[in-house]
Design a protein that fits this description.
Shape of chain A: globular
Order of helices and strands of chain A: EEEEEEEEEEE
Number of helices of chain A: 0
Oligomer: heterodimer
Helix content of chain B: under 10%
Number of helices of chain B: 0
Structural class of chain B: mainly beta
Largest sheet of chain A: 7 strands, mixed
Structural class of chain A: mainly beta
Radius of gyration of chain B: 14 Å
Largest interface: A-B, 26 and 24 residues
Distance between the termini of chain A: 36 Å
Largest sheet of chain B: 6 strands, mixed
Shape of chain B: globular
Strand content of chain B: over 45%
Number of strands of chain B: 12
Distance between the termini of chain B: 41 Å
Radius of gyration of chain A: 14 Å
């Protein structure tokens, strides 16, 4: 079955460490997104990519980095520069721009990151 | 910049009754898309319903329907015959049809709905 896989489900980070969250999709979607979810804050856009080898900053990109070397993969790295990384992270993808992209996103099941 | 506001942080409803969740948005664009997503305790985001701004007819999906008031920039979700499985966070979201942010979803802060037996 097609879908988006996020791993790991739970991740613990020590102070000063970089960690990478995985997001893989087999839906043949061109566009992929990373959101951060905090209690009472809704979902806030970190980075997005509408095509391979290209990505754009969202509203809260500071302290994060991404890459998009393959259509299927859009990993998110939480760097030590992110001062408050404890949150729930959601990856999503959508159909290619110009086609049925406006039918909404398909979301992964999320990664819960905790700083210890 | 577009914004989405959900003014009800929490709501509750008795099983089998009807409940309406409010959403307002701000945009200067004429064409856009609106969505309601459901996030149950499993935290999986599920698309409930979508509305195209150029369509005047309100969208309906089984027990879920919207009241889209374009002039008022309002997009409320009505859940009829509420079921225990409807207990979840509900997010209203806006998607622009223009410019560099085309295709990006902007979310409200959510409404936590509890359905009581």
């Amino acid at each position: 079955d097609g879908g988006i896989t996020q791993s790991p489900k739970y991740l613990f980070r020590k102070e000063g460490q970089n960690v990478t969250l995985s997001c893989e999709q087999n839906l043949n979607h061109d566009a992929m997104y990373w959101y951060r979810q905090d209690p009472g804050q809704g979902l806030r856009l970190i980075y997005y990519s509408q095509i391979v080898n290209d990505f754009q900053k969202g509203d809260i990109a500071e302290g994060y980095s991404v890459s998009r070397e393959k259509k299927e993969s859009f990993p998110l790295t939480v760097t030590s520069a992110q001062k408050n990384p404890t949150a729930f992270y959601l990856c999503a993808s959508s159909l290619p721009t110009g086609q049925d992209w406006n039918y909404g996103y398909t979301f992964g099941s999320g990664t819960r990151l905790t700083v210890v | 910049a577009q914004t989405v506001t959900q003014s009800q942080p929490e709501m509750s409803v008795q099983e089998a009754e009807t409940v309406t969740l409010s959403c307002t948005y701000d945009t200067s664009e004429n064409n856009y898309y609106l969505f309601w997503y459901k996030q149950p305790p499993s935290r999986q985001m599920i698309l409930v319903i979508r509305q195209e701004a150029y369509k005047q007819q309100n969208a309906t999906e089984n027990r879920f329907s919207v009241n889209f008031q374009k002039a008022a920039k309002s997009f409320s979700l009505k859940i009829s015959d509420s079921q225990l499985g409807d207990t979840a966070m509900y997010f209203c979201a806006f998607m622009t049809d223009y410019g560099g942010s085309q295709g990006n979803l902007i979310f409200g802060k959510g409404t936590k709905l509890s359905v009581k037996p």
